[in-house]
Amino acid sequence: MEHYKLTLAYDGTDFAGFQRQGSKRTVQQTLEQALRKIGWEGKTILSAGRTDAGVHADGQVVVFDLEWRHSLKDLKAALNSGLPADAAVKDLQVAIAGFHPRFDACARCYQYHLFSDPDRDPLRERFAWRIDWKLDWSALDTAAKLILGKHDFSSVGRAMKPGASTERNVFSAGWRSAPGKNFVFQIIADAFLYHMVRRLVHLQVKVATGRMDVEEFQKGIQQPRELPPGIAPAAGLFLHKIYYAKDWQEKLDLGATR
Question: Distance between CA atoms of 178 and 234, rounded to whole angstroms?
Fold first, then answer.
């Protein structure tokens, strides 16, 4: 029996989220079905995080135990052949005994995609939020920098369990632009609150379109207080990467040399 770690990508559009929910189609249920086709007898897989309905991933990490007598390449192929078109195993390796994808994580990275266009675009809108307002790039950049550091983020999210801490440490946050009026927000933190990234994106867009003062946003980050309601659509959000001890240290070392 081996302990396996896989990296999973999925288009979240037609999933009711990651976590198993009765008869609903979820990522967990779909992956466990593919595993059972090749002899898996476990009760549940372990994941690095639980994405909401409509949220995508290209770096979700999952762990499971399996008796498999063939190669890793064959196991990856067998799993992918049993998965639907909107999910795929990107990487597969044997994990050390006791490895847990959630509790052993050092940091998590999410990306949010949006584009500015007055006209609808069904293909792009499957994976991005379309807005028809002009964005002030400098305001976006200013707002993102205010998120950095350790704060009580209860103004923009809630803990998964009642009474749990709402303090999170944001290591990196910033926007980049791309051709076609595309914008990508990337944020790396030790952990995230429920709806935290989508709320942060929504509020930053309000700042960048002149519908909210940057000072109000700053006060809401620095000290818990009520902020304007609203949340960015799920379609633009991606769970991009989970950092563990080795690759997190490599990232820290790389950052120190720049």
Answer: 20
